[in-house]
Structures are given as structure tokens and as C-alpha cells.
Amino acid sequence: MTNPTERTLPANSMVEGPEREFGCTVMELRKLMELRSTDAVNQISAHYGGVMNLCSRLKTNPVEGLSGNPADLEKRKHVFGQNFIPPKKPKTFLELVWEALQDVTLIILEIAAIISLVLSFYRPPGDGNDQCGLPISSVEDEGEAETGWIEGAAILFSVIIVVLVTAFNDWSKEKQFRGLQNRIEKEQKFSVIRNGHIIQLPVAEIVVGDIAQIKYGDLLPADGILIQGNDLKIDESSLTGESDHVKKSVEKDPMLLSGTHVMEGSGRMVVTAVGINSQTGIIFTLLGASEGEEEEKKKKGKKQGVPENRNKAKTQDGVALEIQPLNSQEGIDNEEKEKKAAKLPKKEKSVLQGKLTRLAVQIGKAGLIMSAITVLVLILYFVIENFVILRRAWLPECTPIYIQYFVKFFIIGITVLVVAVPEGLPLAVTISLAYSVKKMMKDNNLVRHLDACETMGNATAICSDKTGTLTMNRMTVVQAYIGDTHYHQIPSPDALLPKVLDLIVNGISINSAYTSKILPPEKEGGLPRQVGNKTECALLGFVTDLKQDYHAVRNEMPEEKFCKVYTFNSVRKSMSTVVEKPSGGYRMYSKGASEILLRKCNRILDKKGEVVPFKNKDRDEMVRTVIEPMASEGLRTICVAYRDFNDGEPPWDNENEILTELTCIAVVGIEDPVRPEVPEAIAKCKRAGITVRMVTGDNINTARAIATKCGIIAPGDDFLCLEGKEFNRLIRNEKGEVEQEKLDKIWPKLRVLARSSPTDKHTLVKGIIDSTVGEQRQVVAVTGDGTNDGPALKKADVGFAMGIAGTDVAKEASDIILTDDNFTSIVKAVMWGRNVYDSISKFLQFQLTVNVVAVIVAFTGACITQDSPLKAVQMLWVNLIMDTFASLALATEPPTESLLKRRPYGRNKPLISRTMMKNILGHAVYQLTVIFFLVFAGEKFFDIDSGRKAPLHSPPSQHYTIIFNTFVLMQLFNEINSRKIHGERNVFSGIYHNLIFCTVVLGTFISQILIVEFGGKPFSCTKLTLSQWFWCLFIGIGELLWGQVISSIPTQSLKFLKEAGHGTTKEEITKDAEGLDEIDLAEMELRRGQILWFRGLNRIQTQIDVINTFQTGASFKGVLKRQTMGQHLDVKHVPSSSYVTVAPVRSPPTTSVPAAVPSPTLGNQSGQSVP
């Protein structure tokens, strides 16, 4: 790749050799690409003699492309550079170590350890001890006194381990991101013509001189100049900040820039600049510069003629560039989420991140207060006892000894703080997310933003596309209406008149993108492969089924001969191509959605192939007899039509006049079968409390038929199916603004939105997210594949883009890419997301039990015995090392199907539920009882020397070793208890599926044996006898039994328990309802009997209420309120028999009965009640 120094050399210096072969240099092309519109056109014609001459200078053929000769490609890469923007260097391991060292608690620990180390080497004069009257250690312990430095060293050593573990985690996370990024980049391919063939080439392989095919939805991978274009519009906002789409044409503005999006049309361009020489590349090089140089570079950049309006890109934080999809300037915004790891400030945290931060801050504050009190109590106790009660004088030679005591107190205080702050938390989150992301790859979810994975677990609604996600996106024409005849199978060619057949073949072959084609199957006996737009492939397949060859037609009529192309877009919903007729005049072929195109037809071909008038009543008749029956079978109906212009050339830009007075040739019904696994996946979503809504551009009958096949709607449900127009009429006020109140009446029941535009999709998603009706706020996931889905994907909490059918723009805006375009993968993502949430809750339950117990033990122990029963190094072992591994063990639990059997937590559900609080406090009670018993009565029980009130440097005692050992073993067995957080009794279920968990538990146990038996002075441990070990183990196993006792206590009876770690509450939820909404499996068994009663009562109540409501004409809200309460009591929704009666009621929209909307949209659309 040409390095930056080589680039900036003047054209005639050392690079001239190879560049002389091509008629222009890198710098000339760079200068050329900085020009816009007419300046560019003038420069190309003046300097190069037009685009075609430029192609010949670059030694490329505008039709055939490059030859693909490897030597030629290498030479081009050498002269003009590769299409690759080098990423910013990743942080080195040492930098990450340095970052990990910035942690406040660790810094305090280091300082304390260093002071302790320094003081331990200070020996006061021999006779000083008696005067000071403080026991340091007896004479026989002189050797031990020499080892006073060990504690300080051990603390430093543990700090080093923690720092290394953290740094290694960050490093591997960074590496994973890079891998992910490379994968996204490798997957980005582009259509390039080489040797006359269109091939899909990885973006990095594109070279200057390549001829690239561009079409709707592409993200341009390099700079180029347009050779031929149809109706091309580009979104250049990522480079210029201008939101309007820019029209491109060979005559007026042929300049195409990398990183911009094709919003409409198609064409071919010759590539003129790649990699760091492209416009995006230049900005990247400016951005990649270090902060200090950045200012100078900006000034230079402006002088060099980089337009002002680019500073939008420049001011972005350089860090964001670390992981970028190739050439995407917009990626900066997208990837910022991903770079939370790089400490980029981001406005809105993910749901979980928000809750965790709040919780960590609360715990941190509590820990700080506790540790400060501990230090104060210890110092005061010491001072009062020595200088007030015993009336000793402060002797100067005793000062170092006193200071040693104070440092010891300080270390105890820090230990309390270290234990109180859950360092393992960020680690657990990272491990859990990273592990899930890795595993989700196997489930066809390519996660682009880490937090999307966890947000998905909270999803309460999914707005899904139909085509390709719920259906197989393998379209085939199965019915046709030609010449007054409705064929239920594909007709044989003989059944059609030759001139009609000819019109059909030409109308389809010419009027479809030439990139759409049908290739022979990959495997023998397989289905033919469809490449390009699937609807067009279905129509081309229809031509092939009629025993005709569309290739021959296309060869006769290459794209160069087209007079005008009106490409498909979401507004037109049709495509038309105009060609010259051999006999003179023009013919336009059109195809599009039948109800849209038939409105523009005023003639139709009859049985004899003659053109006859086609009036409104004929159209209504045709809709009733042909289109609706096809649609009700779930077929998409496409109309093929044409129009002749015989009186000279009409004004092509006046689209409204051109696209009228068409003659209908045929209407075909295209089937796109539902994916076999979708109905089951949607049933799972329903069980999991997730509402699936279908948003599609198809007509309402097709959409409803498919929704019924998928199980999104079932006969007898109370639901709405709306068309985009009707939807807008219902939610907008007179001024045409969307009103949240109106939208709130509609979205809860809306299941199908048909004939919807991208704006409708965005409005719906935004409306659901902003809505505050219902007992919890909604978290919405959206799937999309088209360029126009970008806004909705960005707005959604989680955006899924299709990996196969999706355009680059959609992938760019998404959080997760579905590599198999399949709806079941979304359900897997929900499972993983919930698993992440649960894994973190499991870890929290474990960690907080350790914290509560350790803090209380250290605090009370210190206050009563002037010494914490658990030493600093022991605490570090428990808190930092064990927790790190526990987070690894609990964060890598594989998901189970049972995760899909509960309702989503939603935004405001606290992290620590009542059941978890019950477990934390319950286990803390057990552990504290045991430890305090051992501290104050352990020596009598085991018949050993007491370890309390030991002198400063005394050797470790068996007494305190037993306490430490018991404490660790209790944590170890509590780790097994923590595997379940919803009160399940069997804590061992599925434990063998998690090898990491088993390894960690065994590993920790073995390490504990080694520490106790061989840890000695650094760990303040001494060897234990076998019987003492058995007692410790027995008390540890007691944790499992105690867990069973706790799960027998119903959570409901413990009203005093509070949850912790709330999300941001947008509105208060009644606390009672919150408690009831929680899962406590042990309790559920007790409650099943009651539930049946409740259901019966609830049904009767609701039905009485409905009758009363209609008698009094009162508001419907009371009924709904009772409904939502019913949900909380695990009472299923009342079957909607009581609602269905609402359907025929035609009342003005002002009434508050949401179901009685005066539109043919309810239930089965005709307004009658559904059987």
C-alpha cells in the first residue's frame, strides 16, 4: 500500500515510473474527486476529454471492466493504493495495565501496602517496647517479626494480579471487537464487472479502474465517476451533513463518493480513488492523527481544500475510529455505542448498564462510610485505651510503633472498603456479554453493539418485516390472470397468444434490474438460485416456466439503449422502463403492486389479445374476483402493464403524466411461503410475554393471511389490522402531527400494519417506545432490510438487520445482524439477552452475600477485638480472585428454554428482586451466625488457642485460619445456590452443561486447600487437622441445606424486603403489583389452586363489567384496569369473547372505547365479529 509520504510527493518524482503507464497520478485523481457538480464535469471534459477518455487512460473498458489479470491488479494496488483504511492502533497491553491501575480502591491499597512495607522494616530500639507498653511480639517470635513485610508484599502482589486480570480482559475484549469488525468488513461485498462478468468482490479487493455496478441500498466502497445512471439519488449526509438526496447524472453531477448511500436508482461507475486516497479515507487520516496534531492537521486539511462542512466528521472523537466498518463515516456514530469500553461518554446507557451503575454507586457509598467508621472506631479505641484509661505518655521513640498500629487500622479500613465495592461486577458484565456475543455468532446473530445483546432480553415487542424474515424469501409465481382468464397454475405457453406472450416476456425481462437473474442450482436436483431482487426473480422464473429465454431479450436490449428508467422506491411502489420501438416511437413497460398499478390502467388485453377499455367498475370487479382471492391465500399480486407513445418524445421528467393510461397485460400471484420454523418461534414469543407485530408493504389481505399462518393473529383474538393510510388517519390530528394519546389507543391491539411506508414504521416504533400506558414501558426490537428501514432501526432499542437480503445502509444502522435472515434467530437473541440479565443477577446475588457478610464481620470484629477476623490478604483472595472466577463461572451459564417461560423484566424492574434479597439476607444470616460463633466461641469448640487480641506481628493462629477457611467454603457452596435466582429448589439442574462452572468450583476448592496448608504467613494461615477440615466442609455444605430452608419461605410474606438497583423510573408503578409480578417457583406450586379460583372470579367480574359498561355507556378504562391487575396475579387474559361483541359497534372515534374505531379494520376487517 502506498504509504502517506509516497502519496504527497509531486507527480514527477520517484512515483512517476509506474504511474506513467496510467494517464493520471494519484494526486490528480484526488484533486479531481474534491470537485463537485459542474466544476467536476468541466474539469473531466477539459483535462481528460470526458469520462470515456478517463477510462481509457486508466486502461479499463467501461462495458467489460478490467481483465482481472493478477499482475495488472497488483500494479494498480501499488500505484493507487489498496481499498483499505488502516485502523487506529489498538492499545498495547501495558497501556491497558496502566488504565487498570487508575482504579481508586487499588491506588488506596497500593499506598497502604507501601506504607506498611516501609514501616515493617523499621525496628525501634530494643528497650522501647516496655516503655510503650504495647505487645509487639514475644522474644521467641523474633524470627516472625522479621516477616512483618509479608503482609504489605502480599497486598501488592494481589493488586498486581487483579490489574493483570483486568488488563487481560480488556485486551481480549478489544481483540474480539477487532475480530468482529474484520468479519463485518469481510462480509461486505460489492458488484464489480471484470472481464464482462458481474462478480461479487470483497470491498478491500476493489482497485482504481474497476467498473462497479451500483444500485439502491448500496454503501459506496470507493470514490468514482458515473459512466451510466438511471434515476440515481445519493444520500451524502455522512460526508457533507446535507440531508437532501443529491441527484447524480453523467451530464450534471457524476461524482460519487465513498461512504455515501445510494437511495434510489442504479448505474455504473469507474473507480478513481480507493482507501486513504478516497474522500472518506482523507477524513479518516485527519481523524486518526493524535489529539495534539489534530488541530494543526485540521488547519492544513482546510488549506488543502477539504471542504469546511466536513468538520462534522472531524470533530468526532478519534477513539471512535478504532473499530470501523470500512469506509463508513456514519459508522462513527454507530460504533460509539460499541466503544463504551473505550470510556466514550455516551448519553443513554443501556437498561442494564444504567441499573448497575446506580447500584455500584450506592454500594460504593455504603462501603466508604463503613470503612471510615471502622478506621475511626479503631483509632479512637486505641487512643482512649492507651492514653486516657492507662494514662501513658506519648514518647517520641514510640511514635513509629504507634504509626504501625495506625497503618494496620488503616489497612483494615481499606479492606472493608475493598470488600464492600463489588469489583467483580464490571468484570461479570463484560465476561457475560463477551461470552454471549461469541455464542450468539453460532446462533446466527452477529452482535455489533455489545449492550444490544442484553437489551434484547428486556424486549417486550418485536416489529418484524414479513418478506424474508417470517417468509422464506424464495418467491415463485403460482397463479396468473391473463386475457380474462384466471389460471390457478402456470399456463402452458401454447395457451397464450404469441403477441401477449411476447409482451409478457419483454415486459418482465427488460423492466427488471439486470442484476436480478436466475442461476442453475448449486447442487444437483436443488432449486435454481435466485440472485438479486426476489420479486423480480419470481417474475423471471415465470418467464422461464413459459419456456422463454429472458437472456436473449436482455442481450438484444442492453441497458445502454434505455431511454428512461423509473426505478422502484417506497413512494412509487412500481418500476418502469422506457425503450424505443423498432418502428419508431417509445414503449414503456411497468410493473408494480396490483392495486396501485391498476388505478393507472385505463385499458386491458382481452382473450383475443385486443386492447379494450378498463373502467372503474371493471377494476372493482377484478379486485373482487381475482386480487382478493389471491391475497387471501397469502399471495402478493403484481401487475404487468405497458404504454405506447407514438407522438414524438414526451417530457420524461413529468412522471405523473407518463405513468397513466397504461394497458394491463397480466396480474400474477407470487407466493412466498412462511418459514416452517416461524409459527413455533412466534408461539414462544407469546409465551415469553413478547408481542410480535408484522409491518409490511404488502396489501392487507396478503398480510393478514400470512399473519394468520404465522400465528401472529388467531381467529377470535381482539386485534387490529390496519393499512398505512388508515393508521395515519387515526393517529394524526388536523395539522397532520402524530398525537401520542391517539397512538396509545391503537398500538396495544395493532398486530398487522400493511401497505406501510418507512415513516409509518418509524412512527409506530417511536410511539411504542415513548408510550407510558400499560404497567411497564416497552422495549422494542425491529427488523429491517431496506435502506428506508434505517430510521426505524436506529430508533428501536434493538435493530436487527438482515445479513443476506439487507442493504449496507440497514446493516449500518442496526445493532445485531441476522446472518441467516431468520425470525427464530431473534428468539435465540431474546434467550441470550435474558440469560445475560440473569447471569448478572446470579453473580450479584453471590457477590452481595459475600460483601454483606465480609463487611459486617470486618467491621464488628474490628470494633470488638481491634482486629478483623479476616485479614487484608485473605479478603483480597475472597473478594478479588474468587469473585473474578465466580463471575466467570456464573456469567457463562448456558441459556435454557425455561427463560422463555416468563414475562420480560422491562425497563423499571429492579436488578435485585425480592426473592434475591430474601436469598442474600437469608444466607448472610447463616454465615454471620456461624462466623461470630467461631470468633467468640470457636476456640472452646475446637479446643485450641484463641486468636483474638493477638499482638502486632504474632504468627497466624489455627483459630482464625478455621474462620477464614469456613468463610471461603461457605461462599463456595453458596456459589452453587446462586445458580438459581427465582427460588427454584434444584440448584444442581444442568450443572454438567457448564464445564467452566465445574472447573471454577473445583479449582477454587483446590486453591483454598493449598492456601490454608501452604499459605503460611502471607495469607495469615496455618495448617489444619483433618477433623477441623471436615468441620469446615460440613458447615459449608450446610449452605446448600439452608438454601432449601430459605426457598420454602414464601417471598410474599416478607413485605418488608425492598428491591434494589431500580432502572430509571419514568412513572411510579404500584409496589404491590411489582412484588406480585415476580417469579418465585417454589411459591407457584402453593398458589396454583388459588389461581384457578381467581380466574373463575375474574372472568365473571369482567363479563359483568362489560355488560354494565355497555348499559351505562361508561368508559372502558375500569375494565382494562382490572384486566392488568389480573395479569399480575398470573391470571390469564379473559378470552376475548366479551370483546368481540365490540366490533360491529359503529361509534364516532371520540368515544373512549378503543375497540370501536369506525374502520373496517377490526378482527377480520369486515367489521363483523370473528367466530
Any key phrases for this structure?
8-stranded mixed beta sheet, Calcium-transporting ATPase, transmembrane domain, Rossmann fold, single chain, 43 helices, 1171 residues, alpha+beta
Protein described:
With 1171 residues, the protein is an alpha+beta fold. Among the domains are: 26-77 and 189-285, Distorted Sandwich (Calcium-transporting ATPase, cytoplasmic transduction domain A); 358-437 and 839-1058, Calcium-transporting ATPase, transmembrane domain, CATH 1.20.1110; 445-470 and 676-821, HAD superfamily/HAD-like (Rossmann fold), CATH 3.40.50.1000; 476-671, Calcium-transporting ATPase, cytoplasmic domain N. It is 49% helix and 12% strand. The strands form four sheets. Strands 10, 11, 14, 15, 16, 17, 18, 19 and 20 form a nine-stranded mixed beta sheet that branches. Helix 8 (104-120) runs antiparallel to helix 11 (149-187), helix 18 (399-420) packs antiparallel against helix 34 and helix 41 (1081-1112) packs antiparallel against helix 42. The chain is elongated and about 120 Å long. The protein starts with a helix and ends in a 31-residue tail after the last helix. The model is unreliable at 1-17, 137-145, 289-348, 1064-1087 and 1113-1171 (pLDDT under 50).
Characterize this entry briefly.
By secondary structure, this protein is α+β, with helices and mostly antiparallel strands. The chain has 43 helices and 26 strands.
